[in-house]
Amino acid sequence: MNDRIHHSDLRDLLPPAEPALPAAPAGLTRWVASHASRLAGLGPGAGLEGPLDDLEPLRDLVGGARVVALGENSHQIREFGLLRHRILRFLVEELGFTACAMEYGAAEGRPVDAWVQGGPGDIDDLLAPGRGIEGLGLPAECRDTLRWLRRHNSAAAHPVRFLGCDIPRAGGSLAPVLEPVAAYLATVDPGALRFLDTALEISGPISGGTVMVPAYARLALAPAVQDRLTTALARLLGRFTDLRETYTERGGTAAYETALSDVRAAVTTDRAQRAMAEALAGAPDGPGFAARERYLADTLLEFLERSGPGTRAVLVGHNAHIQRSANRADGPLASTTMGNLLSRALGADYVPLALTGNGGETVENVPDPDHPFGMRWGRAAVPEAAPDSVEALFPGVPGEPALVDARALRAYARRHGLPEPVRTRLDTAFIEVPALEAFDGIICVPDTSLSADLPRQPPVSGH
Fold this sequence. Notes:
Helices cover 42% and strands 13% of the residues. A hairpin with a 7-residue loop joins β7 and β8. The strands form three sheets. Strands 1-9-12-6-2-5-3-4 form an eight-stranded mixed β-sheet, sandwiched between helices. Strands 7-8 form a two-stranded antiparallel ribbon. It has a two-stranded antiparallel ribbon with strand order 10-11. By secondary structure, it is α/β, with parallel strands linked by helices.
């Protein structure tokens, strides 16, 4: 759910779109109109409880998969949050899923997991602004889902775990992972604190609410200083690797694995900040963004391995992260996505479901070095679907959300020689994605609005 490397921030760096098809293939739109499953409405009166019979088509689509990914084409969208909540309930209550993983900081996620298991504290404090999606905190709809998880777990025979898979603080700060590592090292290896102290000394002054803040700051930071930060983190990671047996003997295996994950997150955050700074300087490098995708995927895979073969996880993240397909190697987006890595590792045990929409409003982000988050967000009207986009296939199913089995639609298109959609929407732009290969299912919401607790401010101007 957190989009730490803001794909919308790279919108202006994307290559010009190829010429669009003259219109969406009529054969595909007719197939969608006749085969789509209609889901319950998500209007103003929509609640989070109630029957889930409309979601029964997911039973066959999901099958026995260990990981089902639920996407979104924009963060902070009310209807996506409500729909994911209902699907999570179905997967937990009807199909026995036992974990909820999110595009949220792994270190920040540990106290959230403790809270949904019945621990003390207040979820609004745990998910305060600066700790969630794009520095704005997790939206109201997501917090309601976590409250439901806590209620469910209070009486569940098999409580649902919460897992954050991402790097810390929207990529904006190393402190959430290095501070607990400092406490760990004080016990097992105080001599290694000098590397950690150097990393905090350099990264602290350039930290911010999202990756955009340190990325802009790095444009004015001397290369030698950046290299000193990278070297300190590399030496810290090397220390953890070299002294694995010593650390586990002194502090136990579980504590070691947690601290090692945090150090890897710090190293990944440094690379993510460098990649974004290079993009802002006009030299975007898709492979440079792959480090974060690797961390997202590996964190979930390691959790599955630790948890045993019966664990089934719902993964919440942006469509651009959960997509099974890789991006162009020479493009500005991450060439290898989290979903691509999960698909390689899990095969048919990984089922990604994209959420998108036609109509209403969406979020638009514009990079701004003077903003506390390094970007300005605003409301924007959802654009008309590009003719060669997957969104253009849904005009015949207005009114309620519509679910399509992308695998069946792809087979139909190829059997009849029909051109498949080659784009999908990201905020207000349409990016190149072979949607029917990237996702196993696609849900289109006919009208979207912004999250209930977003600050009210005028639309971004000039876009």
